[in-house]
Amino acid sequence: MTSIPPDDLRLITVDTQNTVRIEVHGDLDYDNADLLLDEATAQLAARPGLEDLHLHCAGLRMVDSMGLSVLLMIGRRTTEAGVRLHLDDRPAQLDRLLDLTGTLDHLTASVPARAPQSAAGEDDVLAARPTGPDGTT
After folding, report:
1. Which residue intervals of 1-137 are DSSP H helices?
2. 3-state secondary structure of 71
């Protein structure tokens, strides 16, 4: 019995000292999206001085809800690392999806400069917790 493989996702990673560019070709969907998340996460972990992560999207054919979820996860991870995320050469269907979901500005907003790392004490952990509208956690 043969099975039909899902549309493939091919990634080409090009890096310099402060920048990584991942070219994305194919479908960013349920079957393949984790490949991009794994590659982006590995690049962030391997380069603590990274300043910019470029996802070159011209070769994207389709993005489903899992693909969007992975893009948002990559956005969170780059923000946590103090790295600017760029979604370069976005095809029209990706722009439409990001516009409809209100995530374009969220994914491409610049990040503040890295904060100095300090030893995390209990007060630091409590201070970092998000608070509700009435100031409670």
Report:
1. 33-46, 65-81, 92-101, 104-108, 122-127
2. helix
Q: State both tokens at 40.
A: 């982006």
Share of the chain above pLDDT 70, in %: 74
How high is the pLDDT of residue 122?
A: 43
Sign for the pseudo-dihedral over CA of 69, 125, 130, 84? negative
Model pTM score: 0.76
> Quick one: residue 102, left, alpha or beta (phi over 0 = left, psi -120 to 50 = alpha)?
left
Kindly state the tokens that stand for 11: 């990634």
Q: How far apart are CA 136 and CA 114, in angstroms?
A: 27
- Predicted pLDDT at 37: 98
Whether residue 135 has pLDDT greater than 50: no
